[in-house]
Amino acid sequence: MNIENTKAQMRKGVLEFCILSVLKEKEAYTSEILDTLKNARLLVVEGTVYPLLTRLKNDGLLNYRWEESTSGPPRKYYELTELGKTFLNELNGTWTELSDAVNIITNQK
User: Fold this and answer.
1) Helix, strand, or coil here: 60?
2) What confidence category does residue 85 fall into, taking pLDDT thresholds of 50, 70 and 90?
């Protein structure tokens, strides 16, 4: 069994929740999202995030707008839609329940 594959699957399972959480307070462009994830020690590559952002947008959870940049090409800023905020609130509840259950199971003596 490959432990790295299992760890990657665990990270992938919470990535959508983490990205939506990054965007709950303010809009951000992809590099900011990646930096926030990296600062939290959730290492993700751009090639994983871009398709996920597109899917979240297509699902109606995110909107984006283009803004000119003084240091390169225009940037695409993402923000949560109202549906995205509702979805994130549901995920927060589920995460709390799941986290509590896993902690109970893994901390048993």
Assistant:
1) coil
2) very high
Task: Report the CATH number that the domain containing residue 47 is assigned in CATH.
Answer: 1.10.10.10
* Of the candidates 64, 62, 57, 65, the residue with the CA atom closest to the CA atom of residue 81: 62
Paired strand residues for 72: 69
Query: How many H-runs (helices) and E-runs (strands) does the chain carry?
Result: 4, 3
Instruction: Could you list the beta-strand ranges (E) of the chain.
Output: 28-29, 62-69, 72-80
Q: Is residue 3 part of a domain?
A: no
Segment 7-16, tens digit of pLDDT: 878 887 799 9
Q: Side by side, which strands form the sheet with 28-29? A: 28-29, 72-80, 62-69
- Domain holding 76, by residue range, is 10-107
User: What is the spatial distance between Cα 23 and Cα 40, in angstroms, rounded to a whole number?
Assistant: 15
